[in-house]
Amino acid sequence: MHDITKKIAAGIGATAAALGCVIAAGPPAAAAGKWCNHSVCIETYDSGTYLGRVEVSVTNTNQPNRIRARVWVTNDRGNLWSANTKAEDVAKFRTYRDQAYPQRHFPSGTRLCAEGFRGGTSVGLPCVTITN
Questions:
Q1: Which of 107, 58, 115, 111 is nearest to 83 (CA)?
Q2: Using CA atoms, how far apart are residues 47 and 64, in angstroms rounded to an integer?
Q3: CA 35 to chain centre
Q4: Residues in the chain with pLDDT < 70?
Q5: Which among 2, 33, 37, 45 counts the fewest CB atoms within 10 Å?
Q6: Quick check: helix, strand or coil at residue 102?
Q7: According to DSSP H, which parts of the chain are helical?
Q8: How much is the mean pLDDT over the chain?
Q9: What's the CA gap between 42 and 58, in Å, rounded?
Q10: Confidence at residue 20, expressed as pLDDT on a 0 to 100 scale
């Protein structure tokens, strides 16, 4: 990163901090990939604006837990699609995995999010912006 770019980015961050704002743009998803937040990851296997399958994984702790997840696609017009994964009783130190199947194209700029729950408590919320 060039020095001027670093200074601009630092200035934007300082301004946001002074105003009490949090800037969370989220990474773009122009191709298959994996994105994580805390104990939850979402993984896509498609490219562009088509989502056929989305895998959600939730890492468990050192205790057995009931784990589930919710996956949704949204934009400024509201939710375009959503699904709940199956709930599963998971042994300690095991990662829960399940899939959701949107099987459609979404407008560029749409957000894909997944929230994982361990024992009824949210343990992560990764989101990614779908691009061409």
A1: 115
A2: 36
A3: 6
A4: 1-31
A5: 2
A6: coil
A7: 3-19
A8: 83
A9: 9
A10: 40
CA dist list (Å): 44 to 12, 17, 18, 49, 102: 31, 32, 36, 11, 11
Which residue in 90, 114, 88, 110 sits closest to 100, CA to CA? 114
Residues 6+ apart with CB under 8 A from 104: 50, 51, 81
Residue 118, token pair as written in the block: 């361990």
- C-alpha 86/C-alpha 103 separation (Å) is 18
Q: What share of the chain is helix, strand, coil (3-state, %, to 5)?
A: 15, 50, 40
Q: What is the pLDDT of residues 82-116, one digit of tens each?
A: 999 999 999 999 999 999 999 999 999 999 999 99
User: What is the rounded distance in angstroms from the CA atom of residue 32 to the CA atom of residue 102?
Assistant: 15
Which phi and psi (to 5°) does residue 30 adopt? -90, -10
Answer left, alpha or beta for residue 79, where phi above 0 means left and psi between -120 and 50 means alpha: beta
- Cα gap 11→119, rounded to integer Å: 41
